[in-house]
């Protein structure tokens, strides 16, 4: 249920950004914007949020989401929307706004969605509180230990 909620939030954020930029400035149809939104959301959620975010953290996931959003919006917009070279600028602006939203969304993902998955998947117990042990040994105590404690100094 948490993943469905997270995908819904991400879908709304990307949809609002794409409708604001592509719908207003490029007269794209609502159907085209919805298809682009679904594809960008699916790609960014699978790669950026489920793979990169847990392994590398928020900064790398936000940078990856920026790159993924830019390339996917640029390619999909050039396929669905009949715009000239100006679509690169629209893809860049949309990617910047999506990346800002993604930085905040990743905090939600870490606290609410991925945190719950860690609890459910980690059933084995690993004690990660390591301690070092230190002792002082002298030649006399080593000699006594080797002799079996018979010769005490």
TrEMBL record:
Residue spans crossing the bilayer: 7-26, 32-52, 59-81, 87-109
Q: Which UniProt keywords apply?
A: Membrane, Transmembrane, Transmembrane helix
Question: Would the keyword Membrane be found if you checked this record's keyword annotation?
Answer: yes
- Pfam families named among the record's database cross-references: DUF2512
Q: Does the keyword Membrane apply?
A: yes
> What protein is this chain from?
YndM family protein
């Amino acid at each position: 249920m948490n993943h469905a909620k997270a995908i819904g939030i991400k879908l709304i954020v990307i949809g609002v950004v794409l409708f604001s930029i592509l719908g207003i400035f490029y007269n794209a149809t609502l159907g085209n914007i919805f298809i682009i939104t679904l594809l960008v959301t699916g790609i960014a959620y699978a790669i950026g949020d489920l793979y990169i975010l847990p392994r590398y953290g928020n900064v790398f996931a936000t940078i990856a989401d920026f790159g993924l959003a830019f390339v996917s919006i640029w390619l999909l917009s050039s396929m669905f929307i009949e715009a000239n070279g100006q679509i690169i600028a629209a893809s860049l602006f949309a990617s910047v706004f999506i990346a800002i939203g993604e930085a905040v969304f990743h905090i939600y993902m870490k606290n609410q969605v991925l945190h719950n998955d860690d609890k459910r998947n980690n059933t084995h117990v690993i004690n990660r509180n390591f301690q070092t042990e230190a002792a002082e040994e002298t030649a006399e105590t080593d000699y006594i230990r080797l002799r079996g404690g018979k010769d005490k100094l």
